[in-house]
UniProtKB/TrEMBL annotation:
Residues 214-277 form the Metaxin glutathione S-transferase domain. InterPro entries: FAX/IsoI-like, Glutathione-S-Trfase_C_sf, Glutathione_S-Trfase, Metaxin_GST, Mito_Protein_Transport_Metaxin, Thioredoxin-like_fold, Thioredoxin-like_sf. Coiled coil: none annotated. This is Failed axon connections-like protein. The chain crosses the membrane at residues 12-41. One of its GO terms (cellular component) is cytoplasm. Keywords: Membrane, Transmembrane, Transmembrane helix. It comes from Acropora cervicornis (Staghorn coral). PANTHER family: FAILED AXON CONNECTIONS-RELATED, METAXIN RELATED. Belongs to the FAX family. Pfam families: GST_C_6, GST_N_4. Residues 70-162 form the Thioredoxin-like fold domain.
Length: 296
């Protein structure tokens, strides 16, 4: 005669079985969500570049800024400053160097905003820094490199280490992801960026020291700008585009960051400069943000 198992053993058995089954189910759901998401992302119809018109591949707007990427914003500002005809292709198709922005023009593709600027200067015979003296060019170049290769990484630190919860809300990449994929991907994004920060070196400092570095950079550029309309005088140059790209992302995209708080409280000329550039070159800023809200 078969012995019947006590009822509580059956319960325990099913409860223990439930945990791995639920885990396998969640992993499967995330996997399927990931496959569907990345297939949709890659096969999205792509605009074709028109002859003589720059096709600018860049990150999409997110309702706070026209692009969450300072280098994309810088490049778009430069295109407008120099009146170069262009169209934007929003998305996450990265260049062969694995970054945005990149451009296509007359069957050529160029990557990295600074290489793109050099290429387009020659193609369209526009030289945004032509009015600067040799010494001013040296100062502008040094400041641009400081912002892009140093201060920029403090933005990445804030967005992907200090306040990843806000990044899940504002990143145009993460916001369009379904739950729970969004949480898994934001964890990976944070790890990925922490590796970048570590390799750069800036990620090895304490957050207090790192935000101090940001403060020193921002104070220096604020000092250089002073009461002038543009950083190097009455006329804009590439540095103004780069400064706008970075400061606008700080103050409008991550307003809770220490950098944004510093700008708004003590370095008001940087905020002013931002409004200035926006008014002068982006009268359609709000319309563009609205129009491309549903980029995915
Ligand atoms: N030096 C490059 C920097 C571009 C850059 O860092 N792009 C970021 C967005 S702001 C990017 O594509 N990140 C993706 C990644 O590094 O995987 C330029 O000026 O174009």
């Amino acid at each position: 005669m078969a012995l019947e198992q006590p009822v509580e053993y059956n319960h325990l058995f099913y409860s223990l079985l439930f945990v791995p089954c639920a885990l396998i189910f969640v992993v499967l759901v995330i996997f399927v969500q990931g496959v569907v998401f990345f297939v949709r992302l890659n096969f999205k119809p792509k605009k074709t570049a028109r002859k003589g018109v720059v096709l600018l591949h860049q990150m999409p707007p997110n309702g706070r800024v026209l692009s969450v990427s300072p280098s994309c914003l810088k490049l778009e500002t430069y295109l407008r400053m120099c009146k170069i005809p262009y169209e934007s292709e929003y998305g996450f198709r990265m260049s062969r160097k694995g970054k945005v922005p990149w451009i296509e023009l007359n069957e050529k593709s160029v990557t990295d905003s600074n290489f793109i600027v050099r290429f387009l200067n020659d193609e369209f015979h526009v030289y945004p820094d032509v009015h600067l003296s040799a010494e001013e060019k040296a100062v502008a170049h040094t400041m641009l490199v400081t912002l892009e290769e140093n201060t920029y990484w403090t933005l990445i630190y804030y967005s992907f280490v200090t306040d990843i919860a806000d990044t899940r809300i504002m990143s145009p990449f993460l916001t369009v992801m379904p739950f729970p994929l969004k949480y898994v991907m934001s964890w990976f994004a944070s790890r990925y960026m922490q590796n970048y920060l570590w390799s750069h070196g800036i990620g090895r400092h304490s957050s207090e020291d790192l935000y101090k570095i940001a403060e020193e950079d921002l104070r220096a550029v604020s000092q250089l700008l002073g009461n002038k309309k543009f950083v190097m005088g009455d006329n804009p140059c590439l540095l103004d585009a780069a400064l706008f790209g970075l400061v606008s992302v700080f103050i409008w995209n991550v307003p809770r960051s220490p950098q944004a708080k510093l700008i708004r409280s003590q370095l008001k000329n940087l905020e002013q400069h931002c409004y200035h550039i926006k008014e002068e070159y982006f009268p359609d800023w709000d319309q563009l943000m609205l129009k491309h809200k549903q980029w995915f």
